[in-house]
Specification:
Layout (H helix, E strand, L loop, with lengths): L5 H19 L14 H26 L14 H6 L7 H10 L17
Helix pairs in contact: 1-2
Length: about 120
């Protein structure tokens, strides 16, 4: 498993800042689809709001030197996992444990959905 080096952290910081800029670009009311009404528009806005908070939390971890470490056990996160999910907070084992503790079910797993098999 390869963890992020200081150069990698700079790469992830640029990537996160770019995403933060994308998510806040419409804060002046210039979003092209801002006038959309309905569940899809509001769901997208809520998703983006959560993503923006995750991005800012990851940037805060970079600032404190905690980026790239599991928030639960402190182990270094795999670089490949960070590349896919730059805002990730937990390693796989701790993420699964957190999901079980909070009774979160993955909708993509057939076993977690009643009446549906894989």
């Amino acid at each position: 498993m390869s963890s992020p080096s200081p150069l990698d952290v700079a790469f992830f910081e640029r990537k996160l800042r770019q995403r933060e800029a994308e998510l806040t670009a419409g804060d002046d009311g210039s979003r092209p689809d801002e006038g959309r009404v309905g569940d899809f528009g509001s769901a997208r806005i809520e998703r983006e709001r959560h993503e923006l908070q995750d991005v800012r939390d990851a940037l805060a971890r970079i600032a404190t030197g905690e980026y790239g470490k599991c928030l639960r056990c402190g182990r270094l996160l795999d670089r490949a996992r960070l590349e896919l999910f730059p805002t990730v907070r937990f390693d796989m084992g701790c993420m699964e444990l957190d999901e079980r503790e909070h009774n979160i079910h993955n909708p993509y797993r057939g076993a977690d959905r009643p009446g549906r098999s894989c």
